[in-house]
């Protein structure tokens, strides 16, 4: 698909901030899809801005769709949220490759989960002047309460 066509067709939150078709862009889109699946909400502009502060506070239960029938947010769901955020980072060079994504999602070791949780992305910035934290997340994705028709029919 030509770059101009990809740009003109983007009216949702799946297109990467760099707006160029690439492997890194595909990883970004996959991350947004993971976050959308876990939260049960559609992606619009700003999704990561909604999820990341909840991750800083370790409030995974507020991210996960309330229709999920788990007493406590399981490690698998937490892992999907963290991997989704890694994939949906604004800077393309910071995103994992798809093979790394598959490895993270498939690995069940507590050691690997601990490594994932210790990623600097998931640490609350010390101040608003922190260079890794951007107040203006233009191109980041937003979440809406809107559910698709298929989800509503199943309720």
TrEMBL record:
Protein name (database record): Serine-threonine/tyrosine-protein kinase catalytic domain-containing protein
Annotated coiled-coil segments of the chain: none
Region Disordered: start-end pairs: 122-155
Species for this entry: Brassica cretica (Mustard)
Annotated keywords: ATP-binding, Kinase, Nucleotide-binding, Transferase
Molecular function per GO: ATP binding; protein kinase activity
Ranges annotated as biased composition (Basic and acidic residues): 144-155
Domain (Serine-threonine/tyrosine-protein kinase catalytic): residue spans on this chain: 19-105
The keyword Translocase is assigned to this record: no
